[in-house]
Amino acid sequence: MILRTIALLGLACGLALPLAAQTLERVRSANLLTLGYIDQLQPFSSGPATQPSGYVIELCQRIAERIRREQDLPQLRLVYRQLAREEALAALQDGRVDLLCSPLVASLERRRRVSFSLPIYPSGRSAAVRADAPPALLRALEGKVERTAPQWRATINRGLARGTFAVIAGSTTEQWVRQQLRLFGVVSDVVAVQGFAEGIALLEAGKADAFFGDRVVLQRQIAASAAAQPPRVLERIFELEPVALALPRGDEDLRLLVDSELSLIYRSGEIEPLYRQYFGEPGEQVRLLFKAYALP
User: Fold this and answer.
1) Which residues have a Cβ under 8 Å from the Cβ of 22 and sit 6 or more positions away?
2) Model confidence over 117-126: pLDDT tens digits?
3) What residues make up the domain containing 284?
4) What pTM was estimated for this model as a whole?
């Protein structure tokens, strides 16, 4: 009777295991690895599901090769699933994808739903502005207002007041922008857009004064602009925001495998040609950050 009770408890515990903890087992069983990604996030992830490309896509391909080796799956099939930004976390939670191959800021709020790898890119939050942006707005955004309280706050308020600022819907940048406007008591409109192309289009149409987001992505989007007077990206980086790969919460085996491969890429220096391909020559700070990200 005792043995039967123990067996039933063991079975119950097994059934209670979260779906996330079985990712590699599911991959082995189906001989299939499903990688989710968000389109139009150049240079990180973009393109059709038949052949996506980008910096993060290539990192995921390296991880897929490690899974093939370590799990002895030479014929492992690799499938990409294009996801809308707002469904990405849910897709990990319900097992539609095994790994998200687009960058996400590893915020504490998101960690309630999913886990994250080591950082994959030292992202920085910046802003793009209209070609005809007023000088007062530029001074406020570039931090050129003399820090003499209370005049400092008043000058910032005047520079930003009644402006229209675009942000990616649901992003940590949206939260940050709204928090900063509240902090300075600025009355302005915040417009949440679904992607970088939409935000740049608002600037070009004169329907937004500034668009906040990752500096590199903003630069790439504007470089492809056909506008007679395209927006420009400020030199200022408001905050560093290291981004990571999102994976199912609680799956430590998968997370260890992912972090092991990323650490190898960082320690070996293989990250440098990949970084150079998409972002240009890495500076000394970037090199040091990748060394710091790698685990021994």
Assistant:
1) 251
2) 999 998 889 9
3) 21-122+242-293
4) 0.74
